Amino acid sequence: MKAIVHSGQSGLAGLRYTESTSRTPETGEVKIQLKSAGINHRDLFIMAGRTRQDAPLIPGSDGAGIIVEIGEGVREFTVGDEVIIHPTLGWEFAGNVPIVPDIVGGPADGTLAQYITLPAENALPKPAHLSWEEAGVLSLSALTAYRALFTRGELKQGEHILIPGIGGGVATYALLMAVAVGAQVTVTSRSEAKRKEALRLGASHALDSHADWRLQNDLAPVDIILDSIGQAMFPKYFDIIRPGGRIVMYGASSGDDLTLPIRSIFFPQISLIGTSMGSREEFIQMLQWVEQHDIHPVIDGVYPLQDVAKAFERMEKGEQFGNLAILME
C-alpha cells in the first residue's frame, strides 16, 4: 500500500511517501480501506520529538473508510461497512482516565495510508450526513473539543465562553459546538481574516489576541475559557473571567512552564481543569451530538496523500482555519 512514513530524522524532513505493508486483521480487529484522513498539531509534535533511532511510523489519527477484512470474533461489522475511526486506544469510559492515552498515529501506526488495521472497537459507523472529506477530519479534534466543553467544562446554554487562538481544529469545533448549544462565544486571533470568519460562523465577539480585552466595554464576564496556548495568554484570562469561572486546558502551544497568580485563583474561586483527547464512550456521544445538531467540519483545504507535507507546512505556519483533509484517491 501507499503510505506516509516518518523515519530517519525529526520534523517534516522525515516524511516519505512510499510503499508500506498493510496488516491482516487478527482476532477482534478490522482492516479499513481509508477514503480520507486528517492531520493535527499532535502529528507535528510527535514528528518533532522523534529521532533517527525510532522505528518508522505512519502518522495520522483521523480517518474514515470502508471495512475490507474482518478478524475472528468480530460480529458488529460486515465487509463494505462505512466507518469512522475512534483514535484513542483502550480508553472505554470517560471516568477511567489513563495517565497518557495511547492514540492511533503514535505509538500505533496511523491513518496516513491506504489501509489501517485496528481493534474493531475503534471503528464506529460513519455519520451519514458527512462527506468522506468531512468524516476524515472529524475524529481527534472533535472528540477533544467535545470532552473539553461538555464532560470537563460542563458548558451550558447561555454561558459565555472564550476560545483563544481560533483557527485550529479543536478551537473551530469548539466554536461550532458552543454556538449549537446556545452559548455566547468570544474568540481571539492575531489574524483579522480569522476573526471575521469566526464571526461568520456564529461568534459574538472576535478580539485581537494582543489587544487589551479590558477595554471591550460590551464584553460580558466570561464563564469558561478553553485554553490551548498556555503561558503566552494565561495572565490575560484573569482580566475577563467571572468569579467562579472555569479554565479548561488542553494544550500548551507556547510552552509548558506557567507562573500562576495564586490569589487571582483562590479569591475569585477559579477552577483550573485539565483535559486531553477522550474515551470511546464520549466518541459515541460526540458522533450522536454532531448528527443531532447537523455539525459539519470547517475544511480549509483538501490534499492528495502524496502532498501531505504541503498540508503540514500550512498547519505549521498557522495559516489554516479549520481542518486539512487528506484524500487517498
What does this structure look like?
It is a single chain. Helix 3 crosses helix 4 (169-181). The strands form four sheets. Strands 3, 4, 5, 9, 10, 17 and 18 form a seven-stranded mixed β-sheet that branches. This protein is of the alpha/beta class and 329 residues long. It has helices at 41-49, 132-136, 139-152, 169-181, 192-200, 234-237, 262-266, 280-292, 308-316; strands at residues 2-6, 15-19, 29-38, 62-70, 82-85, 88-89, 102-104, 107-108, 115-119, 123-125, 160-163, 184-189, 205-208, 222-227, 241-249, 271-274, 299-304, 323-327. The chain is 25% helix and 28% strand. The two termini are 12 Å apart. The longest helix is centred in the middle third of the chain and has 14 residues, at 139-152.
Summarize the structure.
The protein is an alpha/beta fold and 329 residues long. It has helices at residues 41-49, 132-136, 139-152, 169-181, 192-200, 234-237, 262-266, 280-292, 308-316; strands at residues 2-6, 15-19, 29-38, 62-70, 82-85, 88-89, 102-104, 107-108, 115-119, 123-125, 160-163, 184-189, 205-208, 222-227, 241-249, 271-274, 299-304, 323-327. The model has no long low-confidence stretch (mean pLDDT 96).
